[in-house]
Amino acid sequence: MSQTPLLDTINLPEDLRGLDAKQLPQVAEELRTFLLASVGQTGGHFASNLGAVELTVALHYVYNTPEDHLVWDVGHQSYPHKILTGRKDRMNTMRKYGGLAGFPKRSESEYDAFGVGHSSTSIGAALGMAVADKLAGNDKRSVAIIGDGAMTAGQAFEALNCAGDMDIDLLVILNDNEMSISPNVGALPKYLARNVVRDMHGLLSTIKAQSTKVLDKLPGALEIAQKVEHRIKTIAGEAEHVKQSLSLFENFGFHYTGPVDGHNVDNLVEVLQDLRHKKGPQILHVITKKGQGYKLAENDPVKYHAVSTLAQDNKETVPSTPKPAAKPTYTQIFGKWLCDQAAADSRLIAITPAMREGSGLVEYEKQFPERYFDVGIAEQHAITFAGGLACCGSKPVVAIYSTFLQRGYDQLIHDIALQNLPVLFAIDRAGIVGADGPTHAGLYDLSFLRCVPNMVIAAPSDENECRLLLSTCYQIDGPAAVRYPRGSGIGADVSDGLNTVPVGKGLIKREGRKTAFIAFGSMVQTALEAAETLDATVADMRFVKPLDEALICSLAQSHDYLVTIEENTAQGGAGSAVLEVLAKHNICKPTLLLGVADTVTEHGDPKRLIDDLGLSTEGVLRQVQNWQAQI
């Protein structure tokens, strides 16, 4: 017998809207059951989706999707949305090669109004849709669903500032679960928490107003009630202050509603039905619990933000995780190096834009709490903040994913590079990332970094090289970046010291004939494997900028063919830099550039993606041999 009999009858939101509103709590319960089973099989983002079940049901029940636009910020919470919008039977393919994407994707469904993956874009996108619909003369509605973590980013406030000054019908739903991936930081989450107190103040005011006539008839009762009210306000925590400070969203020009219980689907439907017909910018503050309905995720939403799989025999079983790797990940290498370097240099300050766990900073925070700063989902601020620190003698290390560094590009150029400030960027998740797909792929950093003046860029080929290059670039009196891939490397032994290597110097890893691989970072190992068949020379360049020009020229003079290889877009990347060196020295030599083609990559198993891109050992051999046969 099916555990989800009512959900089984729902293939599209129109089926949901055909139900009686009294059936929605059952839909929500069954949707959570289905979600537990599907994510248990495929893995993926978990706690955030559990927390958004009732909200998703209510939104699709009230709004006429896909005519009305639901824009999900980041997309971590979009699985219930996918289940209700015709993709229920494909949820077993989530994040797999050729299957459903882990985030909303316009090419996947007409119900995915906007493709997302990075945070804080939803309000601006929904505003654009609302304006377009107004100009077209229709009455379609646009809704942005954004979390309290994503609301800390400046882009969200830029959109609020713009929307609040417009005569436009827009609803922003603030899904407040007091979390992003890590616990939220900053003033805004504290402000939002006080709003709950404000709600109590409003309730007290209503009770007082409605009961005054009765209390007036009872001698002494009004005085007693006033004392009780004062005591409740004291317990609630400065309710009068909260009442005065609740003007944040209203000052932006939005009409504020809330806070509302995000797990009461009946009440959510009533509130949304009312808001759907209201004019002007509206904001609905919804309180949810990340991991709702799964106790382990409720108690530890950080650990259960994303999981590999879940054991299916018991809903309270911990996530089944891969066996511990025998070799450390690059993230762990960085985390260990950071602690060691900080112990040796009190000037070191670590900064993360809301990625403490993902960037390997948990142990560092424990050891050096006063020199650790999580600035929230604010990559631009993280970089400028680092610049300010560097101006006053500190040595900032910004731990950031390659895909998120893109968000701070202006600050990297304007605030760091142009002033030649000593800031080290530890760039994690460089190259293909796998299941998270194109929004998270780190395929562009070599291209967009190497054109920036004063930058030093290093790409380690293994775990020990990662530590060496981190130590080396930390000592540079200027901006530097070390980019390394997700996961583990080749299992190289890692030293415990803080040794350095010469800046801008590569080394020969294998001597061969005729063909020379000029290899960067993670592709050095692939080049070495291919070189065994080709009897080729392999150079580990270590640095993308400055390049070892002498080594490149020497290889060009002693070999018939040059092959550059990198896990980065081939356009404007390390291979292009090699061509520039050859042109500078008037060297004409057949050169093949291997990297990621000018295409949007997909999601799936990284090895499968690498093979599809022709960057596996077999793919490299095939490309080199075909190229040489045509010369």
From TrEMBL:
Keyword Metal-binding belongs to the record: yes
Pfam family name, one: Transketolase_C
Any single Gene Ontology cellular-component annotation: cytosol
Assigned EC number: 2.2.1.7
Keyword hit for Transferase: yes
Cofactor binding note of this UniProt entry: Binds 1 thiamine pyrophosphate per subunit.
EC supergroup of this enzyme: transferase
GO molecular function per UniProt: 1-deoxy-D-xylulose-5-phosphate synthase activity; magnesium ion binding; thiamine pyrophosphate binding
Annotated Mg(2+) binding sites: 148, 177
Chain ranges of the Transketolase-like pyrimidine-binding domain: 328-492
Pathway: Metabolic intermediate biosynthesis; 1-deoxy-D-xylulose 5-phosphate biosynthesis; 1-deoxy-D-xylulose 5-phosphate from D-glyceraldehyde 3-phosphate and pyruvate: step 1/1
Record-listed thiamine diphosphate binding positions: 76, 117-119, 149-150, 177, 294, 379
Gene Ontology biological process: isopentenyl diphosphate biosynthetic process, methylerythritol 4-phosphate pathway; terpenoid biosynthetic process; thiamine biosynthetic process
UniProt-listed InterPro entries: Dxylulose-5-P_synthase (IPR005477), THDP-binding (IPR029061), Transketo_C/PFOR_II (IPR009014), Transketolase-like_Pyr-bd (IPR005475), Transketolase_BS (IPR020826), Transketolase_C (IPR033248)
Cofactor or coenzyme needed: thiamine diphosphate; Mg(2+)
Catalytic activity: D-glyceraldehyde 3-phosphate + pyruvate + H(+) = 1-deoxy-D-xylulose 5-phosphate + CO2
Keywords (A to Z) from UniProt: Isoprene biosynthesis, Magnesium, Metal-binding, Thiamine biosynthesis, Thiamine pyrophosphate, Transferase
Task of the protein: Catalyzes the acyloin condensation reaction between C atoms 2 and 3 of pyruvate and glyceraldehyde 3-phosphate to yield 1-deoxy-D-xylulose-5-phosphate (DXP).
Family membership noted in the UniProt record: Belongs to the transketolase family. DXPS subfamily.
HAMAP family linked to this entry: DXP_synth
Subunit structure: Homodimer.
Entry protein name: 1-deoxy-D-xylulose-5-phosphate synthase
